[in-house]
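pinging the channel bc i need a second pair of eyes. not urgent but kinda urgent?? the chain im working w is below, pasted from the shared doc
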Amino acid sequence: MSATNDTTPTIVLVHGALTDASVWNGVIRRAQAAGHRVVAPALPLRGLASDAAYLASFLETVPGPVVLVAHSYAGSVISHPAARDPKVRALVFIAAFQPDAGESSAELNEKFPGSKLGPATTTVVARPDGNDMYLEPEAFGEVYAGDVAPDVVAVMAAAQRPIDPAALGETLPAKATWHGVPSWALVSTRDFSLPPELLRFTARRAGSHTVEVESSHAVPVSHPQEVTELILEAVRAGA
């Protein structure tokens, strides 16, 4: 089926905290080579509700059906009821949060041991209208990108897109979008940002079609082929 066919879903890739849309570069190249239309918006990362509202407005500009893909914190954004859109045929969570009503990203990340994200590895700096949280550059490889080449890790650490830590404490006000929408999930088994047991728990709870990859949290960067394959599985199911 042609990627220009109105019935073929557009792949919308949503980045998480501490990175920007470039985290998807390897996935974008592969999906485009397979003939698919791909877009990757930039999240403001200033609040969960406001990020979800921003994504909802972006989705209004995308014609036809959508397969919505999230990495990391963006899983909370695409799960937020404010981001619900009838065009979304499938949700794909790549090493991502899958919260439900009343849950926050921060709460979920403390549910199981294993995350190295915390005061010892992050720094928070004030800005005029809030705060920005960064991962300490020397901790970026260990915490986020342990299987990524050191020179790439250095670039990612230098080009971080910070998040207001208040966003991580915001809860979903109602049941998540993954209720009633087919979902797929990738568990990164060497993840020191989001514990693998957390990823397994939320994927199982959501009834997501799940694969496991021996990877760090930066799985779109270190394993773009496996990530792309899972996304295209969702696209085929939603076409």
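so The chain has a mean pLDDT of 96. and The first helix runs from residue 25 to 33. — does that match what u expected or am i reading it wrong
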